[in-house]
Amino acid sequence: MCGRYFIDPVLAGEALKEAVESLEKRAGAPVKTGEICPGDEAAVFARAKSGKATLFRMKWGWKNAKNRLVINARSETAETSAMFSESMAARRCLIPASWYFEWEKREDGKVKQEIAPAGGQAFYLAGLYRMENDQPVFVVLTRDAAPGIAHIHDRMPVMLKGDAARSWLGSLDEARSALNEAQTELAFQPAEAEKEGGA
Q1: How many structural domains does the chain have?
Q2: 164 near 181, Cβ under 8 Å?
Q3: Residues 116/123, Cβ–Cβ less than 8 Å
Q4: Is residue 87 part of a domain?
Q5: What CATH number should be reported for the domain holding residue 157?
Q6: Cα-flanking dihedrals φ and ψ of residue 188, to 5°?
Q7: What does pTM read for this prediction?
Q8: What is the model's pLDDT at position 199?
């Protein structure tokens, strides 16, 4: 599961910083960084009509048939799901991130954990997008949790770097291969010194 993630402009690197600045100029408004929550608009890479990977402003979450917000899609079934198959085939995206958050349940409360690939470098969440009311909206793909964090939650977002990230925006066959190269060597630490007792 992925219900919140964080983008640190400093860790993101110069290339992403320049892309965000270009997007802000095109949009005429700042792009949110820091903690990103469902319903927020965030910077997301997708193929433009020219075929070039381009940064767009997209809203996190799309509505299902019951008008409820859906923020995640299971990578194992995205190709066959009525809700996600069309986007899996033709509208895949990459969401820049520095880490994501998950709440670890403990006997004395919950701990908000920051989770990222070991090494601390920025990465991308694999996603899908579509249009709703002329606005692009996205969901984050999830998979079974890596063994090192399965005690925190049994699901985790699909995290991609390097060639795997580039492949995700390629052909469908390349995207399938990218799913097999997702990051599984992860590190985590409490996001705050104190445990959180709420949701």
Answers
A1: 1
A2: yes
A3: yes
A4: yes
A5: 3.90.1680.10
A6: -145, 155
A7: 0.91
A8: 39
